[in-house]
Amino acid sequence: MDMSMMTMMDTSMMKGMDMTAMQNLMEASSACEQACTMCSSSSMGMEGMGKCAAMCANCADMSNTMMRMMMRPAAMDMDSMMAMMQACMVMASACAAECSMHADMNEQCRMCAKACQEMAAACEAMMTSMKAMK
Questions:
Q1: Dihedral angle at the C-alpha atoms of 47, 48, 53, 55, nearest 10 degrees?
Q2: Is residue 61 within 8 Å of 92, Cβ to Cβ?
Q3: 95/72: higher pLDDT
Q4: The pTM is what?
């Protein structure tokens, strides 16, 4: 995120919001969406990979929604943001576990698992930051 976007976000955020944690979550969500979309696409049609492809597609959608919610600071509601981050952590962890089972035979699954783990960690960091605001 460039400095002008950061300044714009900073002026319309909840007071005390950790902008670094927010930026990290937005970047991790975008990377997770991309990795999950690529993994889902590469897994489609492969025998025994239906669950993996579907989980990746769901995780990609949730990652995109998480990123877009973070980009709407005027609509920030603490409870809904915390619930969304918790849901993303659960979905990303489940997707990472599924993809990890295929990581040895599918490079996209290996990359997807890593991106999912990174998004879950970014959600956790942002949640910790937001809890301090209460």
A1: 170
A2: no
A3: 95
A4: 0.87
What the block records as the tokens of 46 is: 């492969």
Task: Provide CB contacts within 8 A for 102, sequence distance 6+.
Answer: 43, 49, 52, 109
Number of residues written out for the chain? 134
Contact 126, 22 (CB under 8 A): yes
- Going 60 to 86 to 24 to 16, the CA torsion angle's sign is positive
The DSSP 8-state label assigned to residue 72 in this structure reads -
Q: Which own/partner contact pairs does 10-18 have at CB distance under 8 Å and 24+ positions apart?
A: 12/73, 12/74, 13/73, 13/76, 14/73, 14/76, 14/78, 14/133, 15/133, 16/132, 16/133, 17/73, 17/76, 17/129, 17/130, 17/133, 18/126, 18/129, 18/130
**Tokens describing residue 39:** 């993994």
Task: Give the model confidence (pLDDT) of 53-79 as tens digits.
Answer: 999 999 999 999 999 998 887 777 889
DSSP 91-123: HHHHHHHHHHTTTTT-HHHHHHHHHHHHHHHHH
